[in-house]
Amino acid sequence: MMILYSGTTCPFSHRCRFVLYEKGMDFEIRDIDLYNKPDDISVMNPYGQVPILVERDLILYESNIINEYIDERFPHPQLMPADPVMRARTRLFLYNFEKELFVHVSVLEDQVARADEKRCAAARSAIRDRLSQLAPLLAKNKYLLGDEFSMLDVAMAPLLWRLEHYGVDLPRTAAPIQKYAERVFSRPAYIEALTPSEKVMRR
Ligand SMILES: N[C@@H](CCC(=O)N[C@@H](CS)C(=O)NCC(=O)O)C(=O)O
After folding, report:
1. How far does residue 12's CA lie from ligand 1's centre (Å)?
2. Buried-exposed string 171-187: b where 16+ CB fall within 10 A, e elsewhere
């Protein structure tokens, strides 16, 4: 059985919980207190971070790597596109999201960095600008890749859920993003994957 070491408010762990529930297989989630990390976290992940996935002698970290493994191990419903060209494009998008959005999310999540108001303000404004660029795409498409829900939606959802919590206000022109977010948030697996601390992040 797969075991996921997860932070109850961690957006990256949230991605992996979302995929586990989408797949509907047997797994165990172990909540990790990030203010008092057990020693074995740094043994399993040299960067000392969650999420971590353990399955027998396989230990994985990095949310997108974990999610691709779960997707290949349990192919239904398939979250990475079947076509190699689309798969490659999806990986590139995932990479862009990390470089252009989640690098700023990490500032807002980091216990030291988030005490620096200037850094946080810069992170909020970068998130707002980059997300707003997705509005025209989401005005046309049901999901980030088109009609089908995919790994890109999984990767993005935890950030959209936390916008208010992070103090990021989207401009009015970003209404298609809010509509898209509600579509993803209404998925049964999304609701099941939320921890009690995440449930109260949004009114
Ligand atoms: N790039 C990593 C980021 C993981 C991450 O930043 N995890 C944070 C919690 S949200 C963490 O474990 N922080 C504890 C620490 O760095 O000591 C991923 O996608 O899995």
Report:
1. 7
2. eeebebbeebbeebeeb
